[in-house]
UniProtKB/TrEMBL annotation:
CDD domains: EFh_PEF_peflin. It holds the Pfam family EF-hand_7. GO terms for cellular component: endoplasmic reticulum; ER to Golgi transport vesicle membrane. The gene is Pef1. It comes from Scopus umbretta (Hammerkop). It is a peripheral membrane protein. Residues 6-41, 73-108 form the EF-hand domain. InterPro entries: EF-hand-dom_pair, EF_Hand_1_Ca_BS, EF_hand_dom, Peflin/Sorcin_CaBP. The lineage of its organism: Eukaryota, Metazoa, Chordata, Craniata, Vertebrata. This is Peflin.
Length: 176
């Protein structure tokens, strides 16, 4: 078919391959089948859903060719950032690389918090590390919750007083 205006021809070609049911849209399931980490593991459901929701302008749970093209640019940018922080070029981000990434992105997070993220998102092993999909997920969630916090921290002091329900509202409105 003809490439729609404003869509990268390579993205259009990949869209057609990924659109398994030929619906003209990409679902979370189709996206998951198309994306792999450096260790050939499929992207996790949560990250795929986050990304679909980000580019789903109609709130239908799927994206069209324009959304897919934008999503590919988004993934490419994250992959470049990921590779920049993957200093040993192992294809995954270790604890020390994660700490350095957070610091360079402007997050002042404790080693204990980074360890908590590794425990939550890394594959179980003697040397846990983060794959690209989880890196994207963590960074998107950090950005979203940071934005929510900053809305309440109008004086930029790093502390806020919240009711329990305000806290839950902040979290729920930014969840998948």
């Amino acid at each position: 078919g003809n490439v729609p205006p404003g869509v990268d021809p390579e993205a259009f070609s990949w869209f057609q391959a990924v659109d398994a049911d030929h619906s003209g849209y990409i679902s979370v399931k189709e996206l998951k089948q198309a994306l792999v980490n450096s260790n050939w593991s499929a992207f996790n459901d949560e990250t795929c859903l986050l990304m679909i929701n980000m580019f789903d302008k109609t709130r239908s749970g799927r994206i069209d060719v324009y959304g897919f093209s934008a999503l590919l640019r988004f993934i490419h940018q994250w992959k470049n950032l990921f590779q920049q922080y993957d200093r040993d070029q192992s294809g995954s981000i270790s604890f020390s690389e994660l700490q350095q990434a957070f610091s360079q992105m402007g997050y002042n997070l404790s080693p204990q918090f980074s360890q908590l993220l590794l425990a939550r998102y890394a594959q179980r092993s003697s040397n846990p590390s983060i794959q690209l999909d989880r890196f994207i997920q963590i960074c998107m969630q950090l950005q979203s919750t940071t934005d929510a916090f900053r809305e309440k921290d109008t004086g930029l002091v790093g502390n806020v007083r919240l009711s329990y329900e305000d806290f839950l509202t902040m979290v729920v409105t930014r969840m998948v």
